[in-house]
């Protein structure tokens, strides 16, 4: 594609997540990527401690600059935002800077393993329930589906259960829903896609390592393929395969993220 994609998420200086994976991945796919950092952290919040600079006050200055220069964007990818006030800024950003028909992809990025990430609460989830009304595609994991749809989080579930949660979620957003990290205990992991009232699944062999930041990498690769014109299922498959490659490239001791850099094909 030749347009500009805006990605809005935090910058975690250390951690191989959010902006520091979205920007290189989208750029690698040849997509001109504009960034809107929402917060600056020393490192992501799965470490013991972190510093946090909220960039909300700067967003209006950035919007002024963009408006004065007449920029518009042809697609949006949102990840970890940090504060619920940033969701108002996101809505304003869509209103003011969206080229006609620019798709909005939102990874709610507020929890995993049945829990919210550090620093998030029910108010953040409520604000996200509202923000996703504006999305064309959302990419939650099961934890986020359960918080957004007010379903009980279960470690083990079957198709009927996850589909009922996703249907409940579809009552609050018209967006297509791509649920990541879906597994039914048969050694496979993949995505559930709900679009046009139909469910589809795509699976890969599950690798024996759970790692941080893989959701952000999945979202960035999915978005890169989507913006490049690939179909949903194809984009999911490619993104899932890419994440698997990142995991394979990462030694267990690395711990805090995956080596996505090595999974991007080299520039010769
Ligand atoms: O990977 C999601 C993410 C992004 N950004 C920050 C995080 C997390 C998850 O914990 O802490 C700052």
Summary, kept brief:
With 268 residues, this protein is an alpha/beta fold. The protein has helices spanning 19-28, 56-69, 85-97, 122-131, 142-149, 159-169, 214-227, 232-248, and strands at residues 4-14, 32-43, 52-54, 75-78, 104-106, 111-112, 115-116, 137-138, 176-182, 188-195, 198-205.
Describe this structure in words.
The chain has 268 residues and is α/β, with parallel strands linked by helices. It is built from eight helices and eleven strands. A nine-stranded mixed β-sheet has the order 3-2-1-4-5-8-9-10-11, with helices on both faces. Strands 6-7 form a two-stranded antiparallel ribbon. It is globular, with a radius of gyration of 17 Å. The site of 3-hydroxy-5-(hydroxymethyl)-2-methylisonicotinaldehyde has 14 residues, from strand 1 and helix 7.
Secondary-structure element sequence? EHEEHEHEEEHEHHEEEHH
- Which structural class do the helices and strands define? alpha/beta
Bin the strand percentage.
Answer: 15-25%
Shape: globular
Provide tags for this entry.
9-stranded mixed sheet, binds 3-hydroxy-5-(hydroxymethyl)-2-methylisonicotinaldehyde, alpha/beta, two-stranded antiparallel ribbon, single chain, 8 helices, 268 residues
Task: Tell me the layout of helices and strands.
Layout: E1 4-14, H1 19-28, E2 32-43, E3 52-54, H2 56-69, E4 75-78, H3 85-97, E5 104-106, E6 111-112, E7 115-116, H4 122-131, E8 137-138, H5 142-149, H6 159-169, E9 176-182, E10 188-195, E11 198-205, H7 214-227, H8 232-248
Parallel strand pairs: 1-2, 1-4, 4-5, 5-8, 8-9
Antiparallel strand pairs: 2-3, 6-7, 9-10, 10-11
Helix pairs in contact: 1-7, 2-3, 5-6, 7-8
The chain binds 3-hydroxy-5-(hydroxymethyl)-2-methylisonicotinaldehyde (PXL).
């Amino acid at each position: 594609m030749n347009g500009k994609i805006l990605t809005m998420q935090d910058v975690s200086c250390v951690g191989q997540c959010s902006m520091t994976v979205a920007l290189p991945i989208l750029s690698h796919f040849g997509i001109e990527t504009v960034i809107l950092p929402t917060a600056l952290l020393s490192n992501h919040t799965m470490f013991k401690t972190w510093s946090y600079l909220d960039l909300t006050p700067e967003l209006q200055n950035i919007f002024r600059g963009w408006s004065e220069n007449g920029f518009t964007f042809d697609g949006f990818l949102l990840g970890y935002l940090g504060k619920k006030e940033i969701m108002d800024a996101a809505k304003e950003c869509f209103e003011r800077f969206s080229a006609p028909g620019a798709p909005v992809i939102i990874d709610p990025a507020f929890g995993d393993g049945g829990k919210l990430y550090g620093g998030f609460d029910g108010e953040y989830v409520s604000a996200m329930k509202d923000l996703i009304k504006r999305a064309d595609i959302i990419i939650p994991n099961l934890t986020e589906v359960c918080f957004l749809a007010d379903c009980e989080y279960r470690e083990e579930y079957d198709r009927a259960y996850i589909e009922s949660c996703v249907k409940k979620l579809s009552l609050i957003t018209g967006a297509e829903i791509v649920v990541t990290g879906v597994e039914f205990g048969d050694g496979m992991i993949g995505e559930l896609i709900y679009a046009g009232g139909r469910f589809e699944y795509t699976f890969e062999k599950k690798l024996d390592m759970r790692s941080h930041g893989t959701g952000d990498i999945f979202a960035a690769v999915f978005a890169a393929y989507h913006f490049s014109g690939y179909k949903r299922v194809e984009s999911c498959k490619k993104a899932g395969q890419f994440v698997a490659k990142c995991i394979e490239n990462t030694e267990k001791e690395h711990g805090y993220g995956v080596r996505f850099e090595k999974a991007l094909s080299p520039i010769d």
